[in-house]
Specification:
Number of helices: 8
Low-confidence stretches: none
Number of strands: 10
Radius of gyration: 18 Å
CATH superfamily of the largest domain: Flavodoxin domain
Strand content: 15-25%
CATH class of the largest domain: Alpha Beta
Shape: globular
Largest sheet: 6 strands, mixed
Strand order of the largest sheet: 2-1-4-6-7-10
Order of helices and strands: EHEHEEHEEHEHEHHEHE
Mean pLDDT: 92
Length: about 260
Amino acid sequence: MELRTVTAGYFSPTDTTKKTVEAIARGIRPVINILDLTPPAAREAEYHFGPEDLLVIGAPVYGGRIPLVEEEAIRHIHGSCTPVVLAAVYGNRAYEDALLELRDLLSCQGFIPVAAGAFIGEHSFGNVIAAGRPDTQDLAKCTDFGRQIAFWLKDATVGDFSLKVPGNYPYRARGAQSGIPHEISGDCIFCLHCAEVCPTGAISTKSPAIKDMSRCIKCQACAKKCPKGARIVPGGFVETMVEKLSAMCGEGRKEPQLFLGR
């Protein structure tokens, strides 16, 4: 299979999925195209790929599913017997139906899934669970996986692939859509970077204190990327979630799980 282009596509509010997907894609080919679905405008555009293109697409895992906003964006991405590599990035708990959902969605859009992986990223709540991941070791494994995929594709056609991944259908029910309230501390410099990085436009571009809770998807990009650490969740919500998740994710370091379609 001769590849014309390799594209790294992702929805990645806190950059963990971005790092993972780009490392896989650059393992396949050093020079890649980028399809960043994080900004709202990018998710509304239409994209088309042919049989000589390869898409590596990744999603963060929210409650065992891919984010609804990325599901909607994928419906704007069109393939034509286009090979695709899938990546689910989760916060050390479980990825459940996310890979299966990705495989089914991309298959319906004209893509042929050839490989997939479940990878670890620092959990959205705080920087305690899977802290700093993907780390150097993770990214090296992603790049090696990309090299393996390139080797397998070299003498193959898309008809040679039949990818099976874990998951259940019907998919796990999505949790209730409820945002996270933030208080602005005295350290806030009103740079409005939080509004810039919010993937759903939930934060006003006039004041960081104004937030549309109905748009918040709890990705925590605004808090994680605040240069002054000035966005604070009141009432000990994050601390309670970290304690609960630590008990659920206390199995030590998890490693990527890789799946091949040949």
